[in-house]
Specification:
- The chain has 180 residues and is α/β, with parallel strands linked by helices.
- It is 37% helix and 23% strand.
- The chain is built from 6 helices and 5 strands, in the order αβαβαβααββα.
- The chain has helices spanning 15-31, 42-52, 76-85, 106-113, 128-134, 166-178, and strands at residues 36-38, 61-67, 87-98, 137-146, 156-164.
- Strand 1 (36-38), helix 2 (42-52) and strand 2 form a beta-alpha-beta unit.
């Protein structure tokens, strides 16, 4: 049994959110070059979880793509470190994820919505760009997307394309082994 298991649920995000994520994910997949690890597939998430749990990243990818799939992992930084460890030098990560909101009453709203079926068990409300920087990724394109949904934690998405700087690639590989 894995120490880190991605949440595997059957219900997607609400329709408006799912459509927006899928549109951006397809754009990311269209730009991807070389070998691609798509975290939208259960097999991709299992590969990532194995590296999070200390497995050796035997396969290397040019691009890792996530369309809302990092919300399935409780430790965002750990998941991103594992993704970096699976990249070839100069590889890229492209993600479309819900992000945290900064406003009055944010904590109260997030708490109220945390049990809603659209977000229950998912890890939303995180600072995705900061986590990407923390693992040595250099941010390129960053787009914030407002989604018309009543589900507060899913009202804003971020679409980020980041690249591993070749000199940082070895750091990512060393860090990934230390993640438990």
């Amino acid at each position: 049994m894995l120490a880190c298991r991605p949440v595997e649920d059957r219900h997607p995000f609400p329709d408006a959110v799912q459509r927006e994520i899928e549109q951006h994910r397809l754009r990311a997949m269209g730009r991807a070059r070389g070998r691609v690890l798509d975290l939208g597939s259960p097999a991709g998430r299992v590969r990532l979880a194995a590296v999070i749990n200390g497995g050796d990243p035997t396969e290397r990818y040019d691009t890792v793509v996530s369309g809302g799939d990092l919300t399935r992992f409780p430790d965002l930084v750990g998941a991103l470190r594992a993704a970096v460890a699976m990249l070839v030098p100069g590889g890229q990560v492209e993600v479309v994820e819900p992000v945290n909101h900064v406003c009055r009453g944010h904590t109260l709203l997030a708490t109220l919505w945390s049990r809603h079926r659209a977000v229950a068990g998912r890890h939303v409300e995180r600072d995705v760009p900061a986590a990407m920087r923390a693992v040595g990724l250099t941010l390129g394109d960053l787009e914030r997307v407002d989604v018309p949904t009543v589900v507060w934690p899913l009202r804003q998405l971020v679409h980020v394309r980041a690249r591993i700087v070749p000199s940082m690639a070895s750091m990512g590989h060393e860090r990934a082994g230390a993640v438990a």
